[in-house]
């Protein structure tokens, strides 16, 4: 699974960075900076917790790699 | 190589842009006297061959046609990915939200029937009648509307005004606006081929792409590919800005040395417009989308610019980065906050403050963090500018400036409301 952010939804609450600090940091304005996006195995539990904690439903776990926009 | 001034040669102020053809005229054929009405158009281009979808895919594949808006996606692949049927839409993007680019509005003004021939041929191949042309300026709008009045087959074509800036001209934002929604790229990565105008499958591409398709169907594969580079046969439209041999809109065969197109003078060259890449000079680069992409300087919508020697180069870069910041659709935080911060830092560098590491950090935080490629493209513009202009940066750091005024050689226009 792959972590994705809908940037049009994200308001920079920052809960994801607290719940998943090994993968998500925050920039100066408080918006998430993603490290390794691919999540597998035991890490999925933590990632799912972060996804469900996002108050804007901006953070998602997606199955397939998303196609490039055109 | 012959140089044929078509219109307004030498009178840049009143009739910008002058229009030129270097070599073979394809999309601009016959326009030296101005706009082609329907009979002049048919005399020049004939009737496009009728093609079903599979045949059109084969033709587009045979000439390796790629989209002329920016992403340079293969037309054949995109066509093959759209279902055939009356639900499918054809969307012609003529919004041209980049103030440096004028090729699309030039084409719509001079050869509206060619654009419509292309759009209607695609619609016929896809067995649909739903065609929308989104247009950003009044001259193009009326040129197309008048063209539709002249044609017997233009009933189903909608021409819609679309003035929503740089980001609003991104194809998914246009598709959304044409569906009655806001003119902003969607946050989820939906493809127009699946979810386009009115939520329906949509073949969407740039104005020039449709004109090139019309040339392809008018002349056939062999004649289309009789000029240009084997990598990307045919011609391409460019907008040339600043200290170049032929400023204005120019049609050229692909495969020419870049130096033949922009001239041999020294100075950094901007390839691909305001989401593009500054390079130290044309070197031995060749003008074709595949070659330039491989070289790390994608052609995008075809803007090439070289700054005149009497303007402050870094100041020009700062002005464009401020403009890019203002063009954020304000829907994604990293872009809305990150682009103004980056522009401020470029301004401080202009004033002689050594904020290079700060700029590098801010530039590095932009790519991949938005609904569209605006943060990525803006970051590439600034990063490559500083890399291609080390002497300018040094001059500003040593002397708090280069002594030249900012002449606004790079147009930034007024943001659409």
UniProtKB/TrEMBL annotation, chain A:
<protein>
    <submittedName>
        <fullName>Ferredoxin</fullName>
    </submittedName>
</protein>
<dbReference type="Pfam" id="PF13459">
    <property type="entry name" value="Fer4_15"/>
</dbReference>
TrEMBL record, chain B:
<feature type="domain" description="NADH-ubiquinone oxidoreductase 51kDa subunit iron-sulphur binding">
    <location>
        <begin position="314"/>
        <end position="359"/>
    </location>
</feature>
<dbReference type="InterPro" id="IPR019575">
    <property type="entry name" value="Nuop51_4Fe4S-bd"/>
</dbReference>
<keyword id="KW-0408">Iron</keyword>
<dbReference type="GO" id="GO:0003954">
    <property type="term" value="F:NADH dehydrogenase activity"/>
</dbReference>
<comment type="similarity">
    <text>Belongs to the complex I 51 kDa subunit family.</text>
</comment>
<dbReference type="GO" id="GO:0051539">
    <property type="term" value="F:4 iron, 4 sulfur cluster binding"/>
</dbReference>
<protein>
    <submittedName>
        <fullName>NADH-quinone oxidoreductase subunit I</fullName>
    </submittedName>
</protein>
<keyword id="KW-0288">FMN</keyword>
<keyword id="KW-0004">4Fe-4S</keyword>
<keyword id="KW-0411">Iron-sulfur</keyword>
<dbReference type="Pfam" id="PF10589">
    <property type="entry name" value="NADH_4Fe-4S"/>
</dbReference>
<dbReference type="GO" id="GO:0045333">
    <property type="term" value="P:cellular respiration"/>
</dbReference>
<dbReference type="InterPro" id="IPR037225">
    <property type="entry name" value="Nuo51_FMN-bd_sf"/>
</dbReference>
<dbReference type="InterPro" id="IPR037207">
    <property type="entry name" value="Nuop51_4Fe4S-bd_sf"/>
</dbReference>
<dbReference type="GO" id="GO:0046872">
    <property type="term" value="F:metal ion binding"/>
</dbReference>
<dbReference type="InterPro" id="IPR050837">
    <property type="entry name" value="ComplexI_51kDa_subunit"/>
</dbReference>
<dbReference type="InterPro" id="IPR011538">
    <property type="entry name" value="Nuo51_FMN-bd"/>
</dbReference>
<keyword id="KW-0285">Flavoprotein</keyword>
<keyword id="KW-0479">Metal-binding</keyword>
<dbReference type="Pfam" id="PF01512">
    <property type="entry name" value="Complex1_51K"/>
</dbReference>
């Amino acid at each position: 699974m792959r972590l994705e952010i809908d940037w049009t939804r994200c308001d920079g609450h920052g809960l994801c960075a607290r719940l998943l600090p090994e993968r998500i940091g925050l920039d100066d304005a408080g918006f998430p900076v993603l490290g390794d996006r691919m999540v597998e195995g035991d890490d999925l539990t933590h990632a799912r917790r972060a996804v469900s904690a996002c108050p804007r439903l901006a953070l998602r776990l997606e199955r397939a790699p998303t196609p490039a926009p055109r | 190589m012959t140089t044929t001034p078509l219109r307004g040669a030498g009178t840049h102020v009143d009739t910008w842009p002058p229009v030129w053809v270097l070599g073979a005229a394809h999309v601009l054929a016959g326009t030296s006297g101005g706009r082609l009405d329907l009979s002049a158009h048919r005399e020049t281009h004939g009737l496009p061959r009728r093609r079903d979808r599979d045949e059109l895919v084969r033709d587009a594949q045979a000439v390796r046609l790629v989209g002329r808006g920016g992403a340079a996606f293969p037309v054949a692949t995109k066509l093959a990915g759209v279902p055939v049927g009356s639900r499918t839409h054809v969307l012609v993007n003529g919004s041209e939200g980049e103030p440096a680019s004028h090729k699309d509005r030039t084409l719509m003004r001079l050869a509206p029937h060619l654009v419509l021939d292309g759009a209607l041929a695609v619609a016929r191949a896809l067995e649909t009648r739903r065609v929308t042309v989104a247009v950003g300026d009044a001259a193009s709008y009326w040129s197309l509307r008048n063209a539709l009045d002249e044609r017997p087959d233009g009933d189903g074509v909608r021409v819609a005004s679309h003035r929503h800036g740089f980001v609003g001209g991104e194809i998914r934002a246009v598709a959304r606006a044409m569906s009655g929604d806001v003119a902003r790229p969607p946050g989820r990565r939906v493809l127009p081929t699946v979810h386009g105008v009115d939520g329906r499958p949509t073949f969407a591409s740039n104005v020039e792409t449709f004109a090139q398709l019309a040339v392809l169907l008018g002349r056939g594969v062999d004649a289309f590919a009789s000029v240009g580079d084997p990598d990307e046969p045919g011609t391409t439209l460019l907008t040339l800005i600043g200290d170049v041999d032929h400023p204005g809109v120019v049609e050229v065969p692909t495969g020419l040395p870049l130096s033949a197109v922009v001239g041999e003078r020294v100075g950094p060259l901007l390839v691909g417009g305001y989401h593009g890449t500054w390079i130290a000079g044309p070197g031995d680069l060749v003008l074709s989308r595949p070659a330039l992409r491989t070289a790390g300087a994608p052609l995008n919508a075809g803007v090439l610019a070289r700054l005149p020697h009497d303007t402050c180069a870094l100041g020009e870069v700062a002005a464009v980065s401020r403009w890019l910041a203002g063009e954020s659709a304000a829907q994604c935080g990293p872009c809305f906050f990150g682009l103004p911060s980056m522009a401020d830092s470029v301004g401080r560098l202009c004033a002689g403050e050594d904020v290079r590491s700060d700029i590098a950090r801010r530039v590095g935080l932009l790519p991949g963090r938005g609904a569209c490629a605006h943060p990525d493209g803006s970051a590439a513009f600034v990063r490559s500018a500083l890399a291609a202009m080390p002497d300018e940066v040094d001059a500003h750091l040593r002397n708090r400036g280069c002594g030249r005024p900012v002449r606004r050689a790079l147009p930034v226009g007024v943001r659409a409301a």
